[in-house]
Design a protein that fits this description.
There is one protein chain. This protein is α/β, with parallel strands linked by helices. The protein is built from 27 helices and 22 strands. The strands form three sheets. The chain has an eight-stranded mixed β-sheet with strand order 7-14-13-9-10-11-12-8. An eight-stranded parallel barrel has the order 15-16-17-18-19-20-21-22, surrounded by seven helices. The protein is globular and about 85 Å long. The structure holds phosphoenolpyruvate and magnesium ion. Residues 564, 602, 623, 625-626 line the site of magnesium ion. The site of magnesium ion (MG) has 5 residues, from helix 22.
Length: 753
């Protein structure tokens, strides 16, 4: 009886605007529940009114934009209580709000559900009926489910719509989007949007002047698509079942029938660029097919969409051009990659913001390594509409300000200026040792990965490299670098830092670190084929990498090799055996010193095995980013659960302490190279636990040193003792923040001094 929910969502997604999508929602829902009316209200993020966004059946169109005050009517009750309201006779409810002049069209039965996304109320969805009756349980369940399904859609669309109505010129109120703090600092600059390839939904609207030129581009794109499909079809036709062969023919038929192309051209003639016109025309077609009753024809909607993506890929290939990065670039997108960051000249990158990811996603770590302000998990970031707009990223809070008012810009400029002053004054610590006032010494190393890091790392006065993420050069290429190419990269790093030690971690791909040319499709990638597991399964790759490292180390002898994702002792033994094999091989060519071999502790099992691993390895280094995710069972990359990813969780702190004690008992050096090591809030307790070394991105280096030089070791021990009494990570954080503020180091935890 009920129209499948999925179909309503699919239809909404193919709409061209939020208004159209919401119209589809209310019409289809009203039909599905066989009621006389359905309406959707959105919460206005500025004044918290409920605004009627779309309605079918009840109100006439003149009521569009109707507002209820935050405490007015039944809508407000649903919003306040954040639960469904199912009434047999709504007008007899004390809070019923009678619309002027509408008495004759009164309804009785009323059902409303809240629309909530990430704990935030976005709106209310209601249905009403002329009868006096209670809506059935399954009808209520249907509406509740629909409410949860449209929530992410509304969250995304909400901001798109706000932004499209608010141009920079008319911005009167500062629009701020909330994300996850992922790279401290303040970044002010001009947005450059990075679009995911071949994604019709991500294509921005753009107006053009030269219509004939745009039509020409489209024609080339369509012709290339046609050629590719025909070619594919003829090459593999014989090995395909008939149904798939028909698909190729159907695609060609759609293209040759010329009508899709004609539709797209019409949109170009209205001033859209080819990609935007394609999006509009394809979405319209998709919708027409989705509305058909014949299930076979309805299924064709996905073919049209697929065809649209294929044409888009061709158009995008024609459109590859060097981006002209503004002097202060804020890179924005759905999900940015290491490559996207690496393409921006470092001096021009002022900040990043992305819709996906979280503070411990690798791209956020890279942003921190470059010292830029970053906000991730900005779920409703309308990046497609923000290109060229001025943005402010407040990396301390994860806030993104859009087209800021002059007053707000001024405020942030001042904060940025103060940050610069703070950095300049911290620079004075460069040549001083990382030593507490009572003489406890810690080694401070840097984490490096992006090519640009090495010079920054030396400039901050590091004592060596605590973690070289060797996968980064692999990620920024389009095939595995050859052994010789790798040797050159490693040699450069070892030479730059010699005689200081450089810990090179062997390839750690998988999880959220994908190589475009080595796809790994897994449901649970963080629990899957990652790090050392890949290296042991592909010894050819591992041996080549180790040989390249060993050869690069000749005559310098400052290399140390570190193994990622070790979860049992056997993996360590096997990897060590392979390293010895590679060493024997290169040593026969020319004398090559055997480096120290260490292991990362980043999986809970390795914590329990830390005593044995400490006996076998030459050093241990805790990867607290992964260790936190695995101990707390929280995906480090998922913005939905980022609120519970916290390295200050007592369980994580106990694990760190246990590893340090195990290493001490075996006399094995122990360091930490996860992001915690660069967070000045945590420095005192890490030192107090007994870590020999902390390794952080160069950008945090001086701040960490400042803390070390500010607190005596016995004070740090006391702080640790207090911290270990707390049960809640939030209490630990507040306590540590207060401690820093009280010691005059407040500039480390917020913008400004
Ligand atoms: C870690 O997990 O803490 C770590 C340093 O490794 P990565 O962040 O590269 O996974
Ligand atoms: Mg890790």
């Amino acid at each position: 009886m009920l129209r499948p929910l999925r179909r309503i969502i699919e239809e909404m997604e193919s709409a061209e605007s939020l208004a159209e999508a919401l119209d589809i929602l209310v019409q289809r829902t009203r039909q599905a529940l066989e009621t006389q009316s359905c309406s959707v209200f959105a919460v206005d993020i500025i004044n918290h009114d409920y605004v009627l966004m779309a309605t079918d059946g009840m109100h006439d169109k003149s009521l569009a934009g109707l507002r209820f005050k935050p405490h007015q009517g039944l809508i407000a009750i649903i919003g306040d209580q954040e639960k469904p309201l199912n009434l047999e006779d709504a007008p007899s409810h004390a809070s019923y709000f009678r619309l002027p002049g509408k008495a004759e069209r009164e309804f009785h039965a009323f059902l409303g559900v809240p629309i909530i996304y990430n704990r935030r109320l976005l709106g209310v969805l209601t249905v009403e009926s002329k009868e006096t009756r209670r809506f059935e349980e399954d009808e209520e369940a249907y509406l509740v489910t629909l409410g949860t399904q449209i929530a992410p859609f509304m969250a995304r669309a909400e901001t798109h719509e706000i932004i499209s109505q608010q141009t920079a010129a008319e911005a009167h109120d500062d629009t701020v989007l909330l994300g996850i703090p992922s790279g401290k600092g303040v970044g002010i600059g001009q947005a450059v949007a990075i679009y995911p390839p071949a994604d019709l939904d991500a294509v921005p609207d753009k107006t053009i002047e030269d219509i004939p030129a745009e039509i020409e581009i489209l024609k080339i794109g369509v012709q290339r698509t046609r050629d590719i499909i025909a070619d594919l079809g003829s090459r593999i036709a014989s090995s395909l079942p008939e149904a798939e062969q028909n698909l190729f023919n159907a695609y060609l038929g759609l293209l040759d029938g010329d009508s899709i192309e004609k539709d797209i051209i019409e949109e170009i003639e209205r001033g859209q660029w080819a990609q935007g016109a394609l999006k509009i025309a394809i979405k319209r077609r998709v919708r027409q097919f989705q509305e058909m009753d014949d299930p076979y024809l309805r299924e064709r909607a996905s073919d049209i969409r697929d065809l649209g993506q294929r044409i888009l890929a061709r158009l995008q290939a024609l459109d590859v051009q060097d981006i002209d990065y503004p002097e202060r670039t804020i890179l924005i997108g759905d999900e940015l990659s290491a490559t996207d960051l690496a393409r921006v000249p470092p001096a021009k990158l002022a900040g990043i913001a992305m819709a996906k990811g979280s503070a411990n996603s690798h791209v956020a770590i890279l942003a921190r390594a470059l010292g830029v302000a970053a906000a991730t998990g900005v779920a409703n970031l309308p990046y497609g509409k923000l290109a060229d707009t001025e943005l402010i990223i407040d990396g301390y809070y994860g806030h993104v300000y859009i087209a800021p008012t002059p007053a707000l810009r001024q405020e942030f400029l001042l904060l940025a200026e103060e940050e610069k002053e703070l950095d300049a004054s911290l620079n004075e610590l460069r040549d001083l040792p990382a030593e507490t006032p009572d003489g406890h010494r810690v080694s401070l190393f840097v984490n490096i990965g992006l090519d640009a890091d090495a010079s920054a790392a030396l400039a901050v006065g590091s004592e060596g490299v605590g973690l070289f993420r060797s996968e980064v050069p692999f990620m920024t290429r389009d095939q595995f670098p050859s052994e010789e190419e790798q040797r050159v990269i490693y040699r450069q790093i070892l030479t730059t830092f010699a005689p200081r030690p450089a810990i090179m971690r062997t390839l750690d791909v998988g999880g959220d670190k994908a190589l475009p040319y080595f796809p790994i499709e897994e449901d649970n990638s963080f629990l899957g084929w990652r790090g050392i597991r890949i290296s042991l399964d592909q010894p050819d790759l591992f041996l080549a990498q180790v040989r390249a490292m060993l050869r690069a180390n000749r005559g310098l002898d400052n290399l140390k090799i570190m193994l990622p994702m070790i979860s049992n002792v056997h993996e360590f033994d096997e990897a060590k055996a392979l390293i010895l094999e590679a060493h024997r091989e290169v040593n026969t060519e020319e004398f090559t010193p055997l480096p120290d071999i260490g292991t990362m502790i980043e999986v809970p099992s390795a914590v329990y095995l830390s005593r044995t691993l400490a006996r076998k390895a030459d050093f241990l280094s805790i990867g607290s980013n992964d260790l936190t995710q695995y101990i707390l069972a929280v995906d480090r990359n998922n913005p939905r659960v980022s609120g519970i990813y916290d390295s200050l969780h007592p369980a994580v702190l106990h694990a760190l302490h246990q590893v340090v004690r195990a290493a001490r008992l075996e006399g094995t050096p122990v360091g930490i190279c996860g992001e915690m090591a660069g967070d000045p809030i945590v420095t005192a307790i890490l030192v107090a636990m007994g870590f020999d070394s902390l390794s952080s991105s160069p950008a945090n280096f001086a701040r960490v040193k400042w803390v070390i030089r500010r607190f005596a070791y016995h004070q740090m021990r006391n702080i640790l003792k207090e911290v270990m009494k707390f049960e809640d990570p939030a209490d630990i954080r507040s306590y540590l923040e207060e401690t820093l503020e009280y010691a005059g180091l407040g500039g480390l935890i917020r913008a400004g001094r």
